[in-house]
Design goal:
The chain has four helices and four strands, in the order ββαααββα. It is of the alpha+beta class and 109 residues long.
Length: 109
């Protein structure tokens, strides 16, 4: 499921997975690696999301000797949780229709 947040901002499974990865790992780089994504690309996606909302979704600190890190803000947690709920509710709502489509598919050859 993809949600259009603005004319040039989408929230979908990729950004949700990135946010989830940051929540799990405490790192933008680690979350990106987990998805096979460069740090630059991961940071770009986070920057896009941070700019789309009234408050940033991710707070990051620069690396160095002690290492950097990233955490979801309370807004980031709320956005990710809301997206995951919408995804679950949408899946439940269309489950019967998906079963119908699957029953009408040709068998695998």
């Amino acid at each position: 499921m993809r949600i259009e947040l603005g004319s040039d901002t989408l929230l979908g499974p990729g950004k949700a997975a990135l946010l989830s990865g940051i929540r799990d790992t405490g790192s933008i780089a680690a979350a990106g690696r987990r998805m096979g994504m460069s740090y630059k690309r991961a940071w770009y996606l986070i920057d896009t999301l941070n700019k789309a909302f009234q408050e940033p979704l991710v707070s990051a600190s620069k690396g160095g000797r002690r290492g950097g890190g990233a955490v979801l803000t309370s807004t980031g947690d709320a956005i990710l949780d809301s997206y995951l709920r919408m995804e679950r509710l949408a899946s439940e709502a269309v489950a019967g229709e998906l079963d119908l489509l699957a029953s009408l598919m040709k068998p695998d050859s």
